[in-house]
Structure formats: structure tokens, C-alpha cells
């Protein structure tokens, strides 16, 4: 069975219950949430997340807990040289893992970190140390930290599979580490996701190991392969293209892996600045039907998807 969804919001009074409704409004059977705004670290207490209601609704709608993915905020940098910032990142991530466990998710996606002015080697070591602290403090929980493959913009760690593998190799508690494969990021990092996905996955298996693969982020890219930019594009409108992305989504070998769209919202009209319409209902429908509709953005503008939360 295809496990397909998008990132959805978790906010307001409805929190996770609203996230489930939003996912269902897109026709999704999987989803990903940030536990609050991705760019800050203000979070509500677990008892305000409306988890019980969300679970009931998920059971009724047939969304499995294993297809709920959490994403840690992207300002967390375990590679930070500043000891205070690094320990804040560790403490925050410990709480994120606890929230993820309370939500019942299996994996929390984490950008490995940014090496800033330091060597890659130093960064890898700091990340591994930070992960060990987080994993030790949350011992007994089954939530895994899914290191995301990165595009290589700025000083990101994780643009080569080797960098992810190095972090895993240096972490003591490897059994709770998994990996999130982002199609835009790997393409931007130089992997030939468009024309040789099987070859890319052979490399992934050789370097990291397919058994670590936990989540796919399905995004097209605004830039050519190897651009190291990380600018997501709507499906079929970028340099990867719809047929390659659809083939990945429908690849039987990865049927058990949830696929999460993080494509950009679309504007009300071509020159509007504000991106207000989520594209997920239309993109999920296109993927299910395996048929690209080149007018889908125009259709979203005419008939915006309901946005909950
Ligand atoms: Fe991410
Ligand atoms: Fe991603
Ligand atoms: Zn990205």
C-alpha cells in the first residue's frame, strides 16, 4: 500500500487533532509535523497536544502510527562550537524525542548540523557526541532520530551519504539512528535521482545501509543537479520532474516507507507575494493517479484546498 502524505501544521487549539484533519483533507494516509514553528523552539506541553483525539481519528481513518513523522526545528545545530548553544540543542532535542514518543511517532527527522567554520571531521564528532547524549537521556524510548540527507548549501553536514555514515559510525547508540532521504536535497547534492534512482539507492545501501531508511521526502527541485541550493519545487515543475518522482513513490521496494511532500505553497496569483495555498491535495492525487496535470497550480488557485488549523 502506498504511504503518502505531506507535512501539515500542528498549531492553534487543535494541535495534533488538527494535523490529522489537515492530512485527511489532502487524501493522505501519512503525514509529518513540526511540534511547533520550525524556526523557533517554543513548544506546548505534551498534555496540550490533543494526542488522544488525534489517535482516535487516525484509527477511524486508517492512518497508522508508524506513518506519522516528526521533524525537529531546523535551527538546532548539534555541530555548534559554542558549548552553550550546543547544550541547548541537546536539551531541546531530548524534549523533542519525548514529544515524538508521546505522539507515538517512530522517527524524528533531524538536519545533522552545520559545520560553520570548523572542519567536517570536528562537526561529525560533535554531532555524534550530541546524538549520544540525546539517545542516552531518552533510553528506553523506541523513537529513532532520522538524519536527513542534505543539499550541501552553506556548511551543511550530510550532503554525501558518507557524511551521514560517518556520523552513525561515531555514535555509540546506533540502533536508534535512521535516515530520511530527501529527493530535492540528494539531487541538489549531485546524486542522479532523476535518471538513476536505482543506482543512487545502491550507493545508499553500500554506504549507509537500506535498513536505516525510514522516510522519503518527495520534492522537486528548482535547481539543476549538483547546485547545492535546497529550493523545493512543486512536483513536475522542477529539474527532477514528475515521472521520476512518481516512479520513486511507486517503487515496490520502498512501499513500506512513508513518503512526505514538502513542496512549496502556491501564491494566489502569479505575481502575489504571499504563498497561501497548500498544493498537497492536488499533488497527492496526481501521484496516486500517476498522471501529471500541468495546469494543477492554476487549478489550486481557482479552487484552493481547505486549510485547517
Ligand atoms: Fe528537513
Ligand atoms: Fe526534507
Ligand atoms: Zn529542503
The averaged pLDDT comes out at 95
Biggest sheet: strands, sense, closure? Answer: 8 strands, parallel, barrel
Q: What's the Cα radius of gyration? A: 18 Å
Strand line-up of the largest beta sheet: 1-2-3-4-6-8-9-12
List the bound ligands.
fe (iii) ion, zinc ion
- Termini, distance in Å? 28 Å
Beta-strand content estimate:
15-25%
Given the C-alpha coordinates, what overall shape results?
globular
Structural class category: alpha/beta
Regarding quaternary structure, what we see is single chain
Helical percent range?
25-40%
Q: Poorly predicted ranges (pLDDT <50, ≥5 residues)?
A: none
Our count of helices gives 10
Task: Give me the count of strands.
Answer: 14
Describe this structure in words.
The chain is of the alpha/beta class and 309 residues long. It is built from ten helices and 14 strands. The strands form four sheets. It has an eight-stranded parallel barrel. A two-stranded antiparallel sheet has the order 5-7. Strands 10-11 form a two-stranded antiparallel sheet. The longest helix has 21 residues, at 83-103. The chain is globular and about 50 Å long. The model has no long low-confidence stretch (mean pLDDT 95). It binds fe (iii) ion (2 copies) and zinc ion. One fe (iii) ion binds next to loops. Residues 182, 184-185, 230, 232 line the site of zinc ion (ZN).
